[in-house]
């Protein structure tokens, strides 16, 4: 443990600390109402991604901008997305979610889809937004797959390669091979089965429309029952990797933590059922620009706390605090999250 890794101040309500309960609770609570406008951003390779803008938006072009990247098979409708986007909008930020290819309201055009290390689309979108809002302070956040992608992008681009004041990564699967192993054991196989069903459904629809550059029949696709198998037979060949092992090695952001120069906050739960509990013990020490906060509980993107008489999202509260801190200190855009209040 280094000075950059500290305990998070999340405390679950009594009786609600179980990691699976925390993971599922956001889906059981009333979903935040949030209006959106949809925008299609065309990509250089002929495909597109769909942006969901929270409505109403600030009128001033210099209003700060919050960009969110969702998790595997996530979308604007995910509970965490609505909570985080709504919290940013409540602060007066312009809030937008980038759907990865095929995760919006329409299937993407090309055979390929998206993956955990796919930084090119996010880089393109952030560049477009930078041109549109050149005077706005900008912060990007990623959840799960989107968090791993964002950390990899931030590490690749250095301190001034992105028009961002900071980045926030939430429950990032920083060692993809280890996560694939964990998700194939015990209760976690329920999550694996649910996510694979969604992924395979999309691939099956594309296979029905025409051949894909994968060596699978529809029946063989249906039989893939682990992330190792799916990523080896589908993700890898569709996205230029030699195998699942090659994909996991090249796409994992964990080995790059020491190279990050942009102020970055990483939020994690030690009991996340999607990854090993000792995840950070097997990774390089984070750089001085990074603050890692690890909660004992929280599950996978759960973090439901009691606030007065109701259950609420600690995650939205913590992210709100970080956005507020970065927005309040414009002369210190290089300020690391370690100096954030609380």
TrEMBL record:
The keyword Secreted does not apply. One of its GO terms (molecular function) is hydrolase activity. Residues 64-305 form the AB hydrolase-1 domain. Pfam families: Abhydrolase_1 (PF00561). Keywords: Hydrolase, Serine esterase. InterPro entries: AB_hydrolase_1 (IPR000073), AB_hydrolase_4_CS (IPR000952), AB_hydrolase_4_sf (IPR050960), AB_hydrolase_fold (IPR029058), ABHD4 (IPR012020). It comes from the Bacteria. Belongs to the AB hydrolase superfamily. AB hydrolase 4 family. PANTHER family: ABHYDROLASE DOMAIN-CONTAINING PROTEIN (PTHR10794), ESTERASE YHET-RELATED (PTHR10794:SF94). NCBIfam families: PRK10985.1. This is Hydrolase.
């Amino acid at each position: 443990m280094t000075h950059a890794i500290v305990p998070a101040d999340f405390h679950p309500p009594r009786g609600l600390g179980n990691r699976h309960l925390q993971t599922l609770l956001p889906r059981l609570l009333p979903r935040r109402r949030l209006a959106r406008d949809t925008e299609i951003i065309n990509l250089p390779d002929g495909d597109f991604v769909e942006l969901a803008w929270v409505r109403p938006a600030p009128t001033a072009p210099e209003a700060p901008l919050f960009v969110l990247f969702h998790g595997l098979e996530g979308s604007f409708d995910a509970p965490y997305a609505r909570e985080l986007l709504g919290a940013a909008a409540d602060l007066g930020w312009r809030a937008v979610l980038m759907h990865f290819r095929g995760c919006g309201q329409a299937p993407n055009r090309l055979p390929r889809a998206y993956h955990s290390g796919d930084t090119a689309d996010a880089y393109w979108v952030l560049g477009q937004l930078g041109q549109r809002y050149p005077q706005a302070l900008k912060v990007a956040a990623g959840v799960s797959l989107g968090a791993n992608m964002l950390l990899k992008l931030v590490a690749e681009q250095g301190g001034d390669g992105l028009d961002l004041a900071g980045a926030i990564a939430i429950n990032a699967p920083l060692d993809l091979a280890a996560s694939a192993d964990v998700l194939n054991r015990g209760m976690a196989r329920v999550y694996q089965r649910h996510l694979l069903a969604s992924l395979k459904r999309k691939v099956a629809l594309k296979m029905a429309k025409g051949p894909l550059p994968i060596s699978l029949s529809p029946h063989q696709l249906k039989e893939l029952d682990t992330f190792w198998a799916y990523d080896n037979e589908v993700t890898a060949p569709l996205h230029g990797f030699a195998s699942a092992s090659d994909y996991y090695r090249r796409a994992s952001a964990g080995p790059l933590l020491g190279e990050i120069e942009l102020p970055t906050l990483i939020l994690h739960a030690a009991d996340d059922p999607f990854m090993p509990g000792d995840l950070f013990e097997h990774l390089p020490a984070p750089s001085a620009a990074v603050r890692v906060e690890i909660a004992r509980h929280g599950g996978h993107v759960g973090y439901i706390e009691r606030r007065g008489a109701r259950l609420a999202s600690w995650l939205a509260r913590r992210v709100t605090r970080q956005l507020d801190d970065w927005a309040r200190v414009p002369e210190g855009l290089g300020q690391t999250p370690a100096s954030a209040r609380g």
